[in-house]
Design brief:
With 608 residues, this protein is of the alpha/beta class. It contains 20 helices and 9 strands. The protein has helices spanning 50-68, 79-102, 120-128, 154-158, 202-213, 230-242, 258-271, 295-310, 312-371, 378-390, 392-401, 420-450, 453-461, 472-494, 500-519, 524-529, 533-541, 543-578, 584-602, 604-607; strands at 24-25, 108-114, 146-149, 167-168, 176-181, 189-193, 217-223, 245-253, 279-283. Strands 1, 2, 3, 4, 5, 6, 7, 8 and 9 form a 9-stranded mixed sheet that branches. The protein is rod-shaped and about 120 Å long.
Amino acid sequence: METPATGAPSPSEGPPGRPAEPIRPAEPIRNAEPIRSAELPRTGEPTRERGRELDLVDALAGVREVVAHTSYPLALPSAEPAREVAAAVLTQLDDYLIPRLRRLDAPLLTVVGGSTGAGKSTLVNSLIRAPVSPAGVLRPTTRVPLLVCHPADAVWFGERQLLPGLARGPRPAERTLQIINAPALTPGLALLDAPDIDSVVDANRTLSRELFAAGDLWLFVTTAVRYADAVPWRVLRDARERGTAVAVVLDRVPPEARDEIAVHFGRMLGGHGLGDAPLFVIAETTLDGFGLLPELDVLPIKKWIDGVARDGALRGTTARRTLSGAVGEVGSRVERLARAAEDQVRGASHLIGSVRSAMAAALSDVERDVRAGAELRGDVYSRWQELLDSGELRLALRITTGPRRSQVGVALAGRPAPGRRFQAAVAAGLARLITEVDVVATQRCRDEWQLRPDGRMLVAADPRLGRPWQGLADAAHDVVHDWQVWLRATAHAEAPRVRTKTRSYATAATVLLATIATIAPHASHVTAAGSGSDTLRVVLDNRAVADLAERARGELFVRVAALLSAEVDRHVAAVVKAGVDSGAAQRLRDAAAQLGVARSTAALVDAA
């Protein structure tokens, strides 16, 4: 099944199977810098519809700016694919879309690609009747892409307006595009022999995808043995989705099975939405002494290529069709990037939320233990017994709550403030409680972060996130100390109005009673034990003491919350440092929306 040529053939001079005019490397023109920012060079002649196309170029430049400045720092499943998509978008913008839109009248770039050993280089050599592209049994054969064009088109391809990331030069080197003058080609269309799409070399596969993305037209080569492989169909499916113009060459077909294989392959093309793609069949044959296919075997392809090259309207239609599909693909890829950017925000929010949840639980533990009187144990309980046995607690009650408290002033002369040892024990117990809940909460944060790849990444970057911050114990003691200072100041302002020499003792007594009521509002274990239970009930039943204790508990919890917030801030800082941008997804979608408007205004396909 061979597609008729769209123009008259341009057979090469000389007998079939021998090279025509000698092929020589094109002289390098100059090495312009690749496009790297939104401030794009306006090279080449303007197109006839400059105003409309420049609107689309500006929109693409806006997309490029946003994509180039969006990162995906957290190790999420969508991050690495997003980085690859972003790199592909930038490459396609720089290598193809923007340069081509600035020069719609430039020669078409036809990428000749396919699987390993499909015969791409042999086909290119045979079309121009000269062995310029290496072909052989060693794989990969094509390591450096080779572009063959008519000498009149060499300026366009040599100035690096298209594929600016590839250096030009006659000597093969990494990331180099070799340009060969081929007088046998008709001006207006160039052939680019690309590396294998399934090359064993990663760099070759990457470059092959990059070159396909920069092509106006694909000449896809497969063989009778490999046409059903998955890789070729994946590439062809991408072409269909992009709207890229494609022609297909089925190579090395056994003559006896030519019709059967061609029909089957044609049906497969139709089933994949490529039924209108030109299909050329080359029978399995013996190459001549120059490694070329018989000229008659490649003549239909040569006639088709020449026809496209000569027909300016057809070239324009082909370029615009591929451009329109590629621009649409950019929009869909940007939406994918926006979703990945949202994943980053959700990931960061989850990590931060887990820390806030852990620290909120830690604060609840402090509140629960304090309200339950859990601190009235151990050393604190021993000091409580001292208060009872020494009579200090009864004296404190007399001066603060007794009906004739002003008459006990003489008995207080030279007496130290009551309950110092008890309050020191309470301070140590509260500081220990705060430290313990922080340690538990921090470990909980670490455990939850370790369950997620983004959390593991942050912990690996800063192992301190898995441990309480240095100085936590001292900070907990400072929190309790400052709280006790606040309580003394408040008690001083509200102490009973007794004679001056008893005022300080009265303040200390008030602080003592409020401290007791703060840490033992529901100390049922003390009451059940009966040791000092009556005295404790007196303390707790005093309305003034109970009110002050309730405020003191609230003040203590506020200060503990502030300390735990510092732990939250430490973890949040690690997430922020990673560089998650909450506005990236919206900026990407805004740029894609502007591109969609510009694309509809440009009407690339209809305007051709």
